[in-house]
Amino acid sequence: MADLAKAKTLNRVAWVLTGVVLLLVGLMRRPQFKIQLPEGVDLGFLPPFHSLMNALTAVALIMALVYIKKKDVKKHQRAVYVALGFSTLFLLSYVAYHFTSSEVIYGDINGDKELDAAELAEVGIMRTIYLMLLLLHIISAAVIFPFILFTFIRAYTGQIEAHRKMAKWVFPVWLFVAISGPVCYLMLMPYYQ
What pTM, to 2 d.p., does this model score? Predict the structure, then answer.
């Protein structure tokens, strides 16, 4: 039996959480909001961790799909919880990293945070491909975030048919985000100093 009152409350929480996350993501790239780390503290290990969390999210999502196709609801639920856990770890570490670390620029071979003509010529069309993939990844992540929560809420509150309908389009977008994140990282990896 669906618990619609609980769903309504959780939907409000999901919207607030979405607003907070989007605000943080918007602020973390602004220089005036950068947080200075203590001397000797470096969060440079986080980008590969972000990539790993996204890749593990993708694996958990695929497992969730396999389990539900086999009608194993319990294992499906566990896989979704695992995917949500990995995504949460990703989001927390991603925000922490970007509030404390400077941007890495695709094609910045010498690490001076600027692209000169020689660097642009060397990376060529790959920079455009990277930026297009990154933009699609970011837009997809921003758009799908609240709907991941709403899809989960539908299942959690017993609205199974609504959950199924949402999951049919939420799942592929979430999977795209989980896969495109590591691809973007691998493309940017040579420019981390």
Answer: 0.89
